Amino acid sequence: MNSSNKCYQKYIPLSVSSLSCPLNCTTAGYQIIEKGENYPLLNHPFDYSLVKRRGRILNEYQILYITEGKGSFASQSLGKEVEITAGTFIMLFPGEWHNYYPDKEIGWKEYWIGFRCNDEAFPASYGFSKNFPVIRIGHHSAVSALFEESCNAVEQEKSGMQIYLSGIIMHILGLVNYLNKNITSDASALTAKIRNAQLLLKERCEENLSVQDLASELGMGYTWFRRKFKQYAGVSPGQYLLQQKHLRAKELLINSSLSISEIGFRLGFENMSQFSTFFKKFEGLSASSYRINNVFNISEAMEEE
After folding, report:
1. Which residues pair with 31 in a beta bridge?
2. Nearest-angstrom CA–CA distance, 174 and 166
């Protein structure tokens, strides 16, 4: 397996000899979905096909680990759609409708392993159930490495592969259970700090605020703060600040009489050219076109009323 590729998948036909294993691996893979890309990148066999609007039902278990980005997940027993951020682990159950996909504006990186197991109590022993299929463990290189090793194993197809893969699957589930049970109050305190950082970046997006200064205000080293922020939010704090400037720019273009250059200066851009490049990169059209289109739509709607 070439780890530099954006995606990899393999499906494993079960042999008679493999059925003696406690678990039988059916598939393993990963894919990196960039911002704006369609999901999924790969064409899956019919029984595994995932269509965003319809979701799917599998006849096996699957475990997924989202290591970058963010998106959404829903299942029949969960009864609602929940946000998925980097560092989230998900278990899919056989016969259970589910749906998941990355945020189109951000993308994500996912690993997965599929397996069959006749012991219905097996997931519960690792802390999973249909009502609690999502565990947020953060980014752990040891977990990612186990998923990557499963891809290597299915690619090489050496003798004894199924026994080896069943061990990897149980190792992953045991490690995730261990990490989940040992999340301390420090994690809650860190989450509160990251949420506070998000709020400050949103409220102060018009200020000349640097991410380094914000980290210092929160009593955190910049490198550590940046890493933890990205694990929680799916994007770096610098990128998150730019997203908030973009949202504020759109609001000002529609709801204020400020000129485009005044809006740019208000949001901390040095000149009109810098702001124009920034806005077009995020929105896909110029600030002037965005203002004309949206002001026209609002005026038209008011006239119809």
Report:
1. 7, 110
2. 12
Q: Give which of 196, 194, 180, 204 is closest to 235, Cα–Cα.
A: 194
- Looking at 2-16, 192-206, 263-277, 283-297, which range is the least confident one? 2-16
CATH level 2 (architecture), domain 187-304: Orthogonal Bundle (1.10)
Q: Which residues make up the CATH 2.60.120.280 domain(s) of the chain?
A: 7-181
pTM of the model: 0.60
Q: What secondary structure, in 3-state letters, does 206-261 show?
A: CCCCCHHHHHHHCCCCHHHHHHHHHHHHCCCHHHHHHHHHHHHHHHHHHHCCCCHH
Does residue 23 surpass a pLDDT of 50?
Answer: yes
Render pLDDT for 259-269 as a digit per residue (tens, 0 to 9): 999 999 999 99
Answer yes or no: are the C-beta atoms of 248 and 240 closer than 8 Å. no
* Residue 48 in this model has a pLDDT that exceeds 80: no
Model confidence band, residue 3 (pLDDT cutoffs 50, 70, 90) = low
> In angstroms, rounded to a whole number, what is the distance separating the alpha carbons of residues 138 and 35?
21
Q: Which CATH architecture has domain 7-181?
A: Sandwich (2.60)
